[in-house]
Design brief:
99 residues; mainly alpha; extended
């Protein structure tokens, strides 16, 4: 492996890391992701930015609670609309009430 590579002729240019951010892979429920994407499209921004802002807002309000999967899911649900009908429509589930 070379110690240095020349990216001057690369099609996309040199790859430079974004300062203060780390690329990760996470699994998010489909309904949560679709809601963030819909909100981002409506606002004219990126859904990853909205997810990041939601997490920052949560962290600003808590100092002592560990962030577990259940806590993260609760935070994301709080950012989603209260209407269950919207979530059912997004997820493809039937929206007719049970009798």
């Amino acid at each position: 492996m070379r110690t240095e590579y020349d990216f001057s002729k690369a099609k996309r240019g040199a790859l430079t890391p974004t300062k203060g951010k780390t690329r990760i892979t996470i699994y998010i429920d489909d309904t949560v992701l679709e809601e963030f994407r819909a909100r981002a499209e409506k606002a004219g921004g990126g859904y990853q930015t909205l997810v990041n802002e939601a997490l920052k807002a949560y962290l600003a309000g808590t100092d002592t609670h560990p962030i577990t999967e259940s806590v993260l899911r609760r935070v994301i649900r709080e950012e989603m609309p209260k209407s269950a009908g919207v979530l059912k429509r997004i997820s493809g589930r039937a929206t007719t009430p049970r009798r």
